[in-house]
Amino acid sequence: MTQDPAVSVHDTAIVEDGAELGPGTQVWHHAHVRRGARVGAGCILGKNVYVDATVRIGDRVKIENNVSIYKGVDIGDDVFVGPHVVFTNDRLPRATNRHWEVIPTTVRRGASLGANATVVCGIDIGEWAMVGAGSVVTRSVPDHQLVVGVPARPAGWVCSCGTVVSRAADRPASLDCGACAGQDAAEAEGGG
Ligand SMILES: [Zn+2]
């Protein structure tokens, strides 16, 4: 187990030898991080989170209670994974399959997955995309898109702060909400 002094692992959690946890990462009750998994800095792994062998998780990722991240799932920086989110890594699940191969899934920087969403393998969830609670995501989601429902359908576009900026099907010219656009302009002028 590679452990920076600033890492915090609850007594009931299991972090196997060969798992890496970045500085400042917190691992809560009954979580399990398998060998070969690499979790970045400043992450929170909630109660009962499972991180499979070889999984990669970026920095500042927040994973809520009872989420299992299986082999083949790759999570970028600043991603939010809501409670009870489910990932899969097998398109043709059979208990008896002799030709099983891992089908990869990527969740890109800043994306959010709402509580109890199911992410079917083989797709790519774009940067700052947002998946509504309870959705079943079966197709890739472009950057900043909001998807909801079963199966998940496009429902608009969101700012990096999460505010819906458009309900149109087409991507809007600006993906900043009014507040973030104002803030960006103020920062550009040096006003903070
Ligand atoms: Zn915003």
Protein described:
It is a single chain. With 192 residues, the chain is mainly β. The protein has a single domain (2-188), classed as UDP N-Acetylglucosamine Acyltransferase, domain 1. The chain contains 1 helix and 24 strands. It has one helix at residues 178-188; strands at residues 2-3, 8-9, 14-15, 20-21, 26-27, 32-33, 38-39, 44-45, 50-51, 56-57, 62-63, 68-69, 73-75, 80-81, 86-87, 105-107, 112-113, 118-119, 124-125, 130-131, 136-137, 145-148, 153-158, 164-166. The strands form 4 sheets. It has a 10-stranded mixed beta sheet with strand order 2-5-8-11-14-17-20-22-23-24, with no helix packed on it. Strands 1-4-7-10-13-16-19 form a 7-stranded parallel beta sheet, with no helix packed on it. The longest helix is centred in the C-terminal third of the chain and has 11 residues, at 178-188. The model has no long low-confidence stretch (mean pLDDT 94). It binds zinc ion. Zinc ion binds next to helix 1.
